């Protein structure tokens, strides 16, 4: 039996994420309490807005220290994924430092910024988080900053060049796209995440 928790950090996508999980038959509590988060079987870190604000909220709740120490599956979504990395050019902010890399703003030459809308996913190989998701699947993105492909990248997107669309390293995972707004592709990824084994 899974007992997922969504970290309460603000953002308009929280209700949509809860509804997406409910469609999978899974209730997810919203909490910023470190003790409650530590007990969860799965932890989801959503995020919209600026990296500095997101880190400030995590730090104020003491979650900047808790999150890197978690051993259960953790999923960062959009800004939440970027906060798993070392830093972001958005406000030149230091992030959680769980994964190596720095989020950088798309160059204006690639097209409109933010990158907004449906884009194809390109899995780099088999992975439990990507089971049932292939090169014909699309996801919904809204972001101005992105991570280049790196050691943790398991699927890329393309916007003037490849960027990390899905990452995974140990028990930490992330999607640059919004699975709660990505129809069947997003539902499959969330179901795959909930199916990951618990404590590592």
How would you describe what is shown here?
This protein has helices at residues 14-23, 34-39, 51-60, 63-66, 79-83, 183-194; strands at 4-7, 29-31, 42-45, 74-77, 85-88, 93-94, 99-105, 115-120, 122-123, 138-143, 145-146, 153-158, 162-169, 172-175. The strands form 3 sheets. An 8-stranded mixed sheet has the order 2-1-3-4-14-13-12-9. A 4-stranded mixed sheet has the order 6-5-7-11. It has a two-stranded antiparallel ribbon with strand order 8-10. Helix 1 (14-23) links the parallel strand 1 (4-7) and strand 2 (29-31). The chain is globular and about 45 Å long. The protein is of the alpha/beta class and 200 residues long. It contains 6 helices and 14 strands. The protein has a single domain, classed as Class I glutamine amidotransferase (GATase) domain (Rossmann fold, 3-Layer(aba) Sandwich), CATH 3.40.50.880.
* Helical coverage, percent range: 10-25%
CATH topology: Rossmann fold
Calculate the mean pLDDT score and round it: 95
What's the shape? globular
Helix vs. strand class: alpha/beta
End-to-end CA span: 16 Å
